[in-house]
Structure formats: structure tokens, C-alpha cells
Write a structure and sequence with these properties.
By secondary structure, the protein is mostly helical. The protein contains 17 helices and no strands.
């Protein structure tokens, strides 16, 4: 037999329907308050069983998504990237794309959304994947959009998701490509270095940055050891 309407809706929750709210509210209403509750499938009449259906639906959805290819993602990259299951689909499509042109076509749909993506618990992973699999020049739009924001690199480096994207850029892009981004960071070196997330970004600069940037960091540390301690 095919899935029930509720199971179908639960499955769709992987791409952003309001079924999570439904699950939360379901256990708060009585049959008197909500007569239609008794018409739900027996396995979906309380919060626990409904969550079990949701988990099963998510697993099935993830399995189906894993079988889909690049063509199923095109035109929906940004929409999917903001969802826990959808972002995995986009990452898989980027990994499995047959050419650099195909990967560029997918990542182009993220343009204009970089700042929002690096703050998103799901889309930040898609940005990271794009940095890893694209040719360096293909990631210019990420750097450009970050630099367009006032103090953008510093703010991104101090964010729990954004710092990961900045680290991947420094790690995978040539130093000349990230030079302006790093220059922006070093203007607030102490602020970034002492931050719980930002310090990892500065460590990446010391590992992969230009020699002049490394020397600038080391000189700042020597001149203010207590401040960096």
C-alpha cells in the first residue's frame, strides 16, 4: 500500500513543510478539542508515534534523495541547501557532477545568498563543499559577497558556521585569491584571534596564508603576548 497522506506530508517535511509544528501540537489537543484527531492513522495519534513516523519518513526521503542526481537539484539548489536533508542532496550532486561546468552551474544558484548561507546550519555545508570541489576561480563569488559586507570577513570568522566557510576558503584557495579577505581579518587580528571560533581561522592563515601575513601575525603576537594569551 502507498503512504498515508500524513506520512506523505511528514516525508515532505524534509524540504520545509510545517509538519514539525504539527508534531509538537498534536499531543497538546484532546479529541474533544480536535475531533479529527481520531481519524488519524493509529500510528500517528500522539507525539511519540508521530515522531517515529517522521523519522522513518526522513530516512526513506534521504534514501530516495541519495538516488537522485544532478538534474534533480538544478533550479532548486538554494531551496534545498537550507534544509537538513536537502543540503546533503546538493553536496552529493556537487561531488558527483560530471564536469567543472556542471559544478559551476549548480553553485551559481548560491550567488546572492552567500551571507545568508554562511549563517545557516545547513547551507554552510553546501558552501564548504563548493569551495572544496570547485576550481579556485569558481569560488570568487563567495569571497566577493563576503567582502561586500562591512567587516564581513571578521563577522563571518566569529560566527559558529561562517568560520567554517572562511577556513575552507583559506585552506583551498591560492593565497593571492584570499589576500584581501585575510587583510580584512588582520585589521582586527586580536579581536578575531581571541574569539572561540575566529582563532581557528587565524590558525588556517598561519598554515596556508601568504608569508607576509604569517609574519604580520607573528609580529603582532610578539608585540602583545599578554593580549593574545
Amino acid at each position: 500500500p502507498g503512504p498515508t497522506l500524513l506520512e506523505g506530508l511528514l516525508c515532505q517535511s524534509a524540504v520545509g513543510t510545517p509538519m514539525r509544528a504539527f508534531v509538537e501540537r498534536l499531543s497538546l489537543v484532546s479529541p474533544e478539542e480536535c475531533p479529527w484527531k481520531s481519524f488519524l492513522p493509529k500510528g500517528c495519534r500522539d507525539r511519540e508515534s508521530c515522531q517515529a513516523v517522521l523519522m522513518k519518513a526522513r530516512e526513506e526521503s534521504a534514501k530516495q534523495l541519495g538516488e537522485l542526481g544532478e538534474s534533480s537539484v538544478l533550479g532548486r539548489v538554494w531551496q534545498l541547501s537550507r534544509d537538513a536533508t536537502g543540503c546533503r542532496l546538493v553536496q552529493s550532486a556537487l561531488d558527483k557532477a560530471e564536469s567543472d561546468e556542471a559544478r559551476s552551474e549548480l553553485s551559481a544558484e548560491l550567488q546572492g545568498h552567500v551571507w545568508e548561507a554562511l549563517h545557516c546550519p545547513h547551507a554552510n555545508h553546501v558552501l564548504q563543499k563548493a569551495v572544496v570541489v570547485l576550481r579556485p576561480e569558481g569560488t570568487d563569488f563567495i569571497i566577493h559577497e563576503m567582502l561586500q559586507r562591512a567587516n564581513g570577513p571578521v563577522l563571518a570568522s566569529r560566527h559558529k558556521y561562517g568560520c567554517r566557510v572562511v577556513q575552507r576558503l583559506i585552506e583551498y584557495c591560492p593565497p593571492d585569491q584570499t589576500s584581501e579577505l585575510v587583510d580584512s581579518l588582520l585589521k582586527d587580528l586580536l579581536l578575531v584571534s581571541r574569539h572561540p571560533y575566529g582563532n581557528y581561522v587565524i590558525q588556517k592563515v598561519l598554515q596556508h596564508g601568504k608569508e607576509e601575513h604569517k609574519q604580520q601575525i607573528l609580529a603582532s603576537i610578539r608585540n602583545d603576548v599578554p593580549g593574545f594569551a
